[in-house]
Amino acid sequence: MSILELTEPHVFLRNCWYVASVTHEVARSPKAVRLLGDDVVLYRREDGSPVALEDACPHRKLPLSMGRIKGDAIECGYHGLTFDGCGTCIEAPTQAQIPALARVRSYPVQDRYGLLWIWMGDAALAQRTPVLEIEHHNDPGWHMTTGDSLRCGCHYLWLVDNLLDPSHVAWVHRNSFASSGTEDTPLQIEADAQGVVCSRWIYGQPPPPFYAPLVKFEGPADRLQHYEVRLPSIAINRSTFAPAGMGGPGVGEDARIYRMVSYNFLTPVDANNTLYFWLQHRNTDPHDQALTERIAAGAKAAFEEDRQILEAVHQGMKHKRTPNIGLLLDAGASRLRRALAERIAAEQGQEPA
Ligand code: FES
Ligand SMILES: [Fe+2]
After folding, report:
1. Separation of CA 7 and ligand 2 centre (Å)
2. What is the pTM of this model?
3. Domains along the chain?
4. Per-residue pLDDT tens digits for 88-114
């Protein structure tokens, strides 16, 4: 598979965990979502455990999400075929026998970090693959925002590219993440089997507006921008601010050092749309709810800026009349796309291009 094929319809990595929803948005009524081109219905059993089923009744393909939940099962809203949480038909009220082919696909799902995760590929592989482990998740000195989301009218790889591109903050987030040095400080790129990291230290600059009220020291800062994407589309964005002179590779622990990790989870809806989920995790003020809400609101406003740019990029690239050019800053994204094309080719049993 070539990297050009990555943006074709139905070309997705399936054997991995994606976020399907914020946990609290899936309850005891059916919720319809489209993920990787598949229509899926989500709901919860009486004990609260989540269910994800193919959202099409095997009779006339009415979305099951138009039916109703009965106990742990879901009943089709047309003629009452009823399916349990594993997709097995348990009732066919209009006839004596349940038809042999009356079943729907079920997808493995689990709640973690306030998000509902789904496995869209081979269910047998899901058990062997843990959801991403969030470092410091159980550390009482850290605090995590509640997950939030945006729907973006663009291919998920435009969002992935953006989350391997620390330079864009200088233009897209002028009033939040931009500071002197974000335009032109050179990037280091590292790649391994899990993905790609683009990072750099920017030394001795005032913290940008989003971070200035959060850091615990006065004066200029050494700032780490660490943009990491794990295949296919989990982006981990680590921001570190140390008093000027203390930062740099190998920076140690010090009470004045501020760390924020922004976890971004991109789930393809189809070739033209993406669900963008995120949460922020910081090493200060674990009980300050007002601060948490400010951070959550600031992140959402910044990601809305990304959404507007990337939806326009999606349209521009889809309908381009002239060839586009590359820039040096694209190097990390290009490596990620090459690695992703190899993983998808391997999953589909193809030779890599
Ligand atoms: S369409 Fe579902 S039972 Fe007929
Ligand atoms: Fe951004």
Report:
1. 21
2. 0.95
3. 17-126 (2.102.10.10), 143-347 (3.90.380.10)
4. 999 999 999 999 999 999 999 999 999
